[in-house]
Amino acid sequence: MKRVANCVAEIMTPYPRSVVARYGGEEIAVILPQCDSAAALSVARLLCAQVRILEIEHDGSEKGRVTVSIGTATMNAVGVLGKKQLLGSADEALYFAKAAGRDCVRSCNQSDDAAAARA
Predict the structure, then answer these.
(1) Cβ within 8 Å of residue 69, ≥6 positions away
(2) Phi-psi category of 21—alpha, beta or left, where left has phi over 0 and alpha has psi -120 to 50?
(3) Among 33, 35, 69, 113, which is 20 to 30 Å from 11 by CA?
(4) Which residues sit opposite 21 in a β-bridge?
(5) What is the enclosing helix (H) or strand (E) of 107?
(6) 102 three-class SS
(7) Using CA of residue 79, residue 81, residue 82, residue 86, what is the dihedral sign?
(8) Distance of alpha carbon 105 from alpha carbon 112, whole angstroms
(9) What is the DSSP string of 16-73?
């Protein structure tokens, strides 16, 4: 977990207002203020790819290495989507990423066709 957390923190360095925090047992939350859904998806895909590059062995995984599943959600400019809804949407997108076979990114802010694209 420490190597993954360090990887995430390093990738977030260019985003000085970003917040990276452990969320639950094996989850990491990344908050990017003033980030639209396209940028969030881009960062999420980068995170997924960079963790894959670490090649951390994981015998308990069908992939044989540590991977990440990422769900993204963004608030609209006028803040209609509240904090609870935002968290719920991100959690739902994460569930879809896990259900899609893990090691991928899903977003609640895209059409079903675009969301099906693997990271």
Answers:
(1) 94, 97, 98, 102, 103, 104, 105
(2) beta
(3) 113
(4) 29
(5) strand 105-107
(6) coil
(7) negative
(8) 13
(9) TT-EEEE-SSS-EEEE-TT--HHHHHHHHHHHHHHHHHH--B-TTSTTSB----EEE-
Rounded distance between C-alpha atoms, residue 108 and residue 89, angstroms: 6
3-state SS assignment for residue 98? helix
Overall pTM surpassing 0.90 (yes/no):
no
* Strand, coil or helix: 105: strand
Element (DSSP H or E) covering residue 111: none
How far is Cα 9 from Cα 102, in angstroms, rounded to an integer?
A: 21
Rounded CA gap, 26 and 66, in Å?
12
Distance CA 76, CA 108 (A): 12
Residues of the chain with pLDDT under 50: 110-119
DSSP reduced 3-state for 114: helix
Question: What pLDDT shows up at residue 99?
Answer: 93
Residue entry with tokens 């940028």: 39
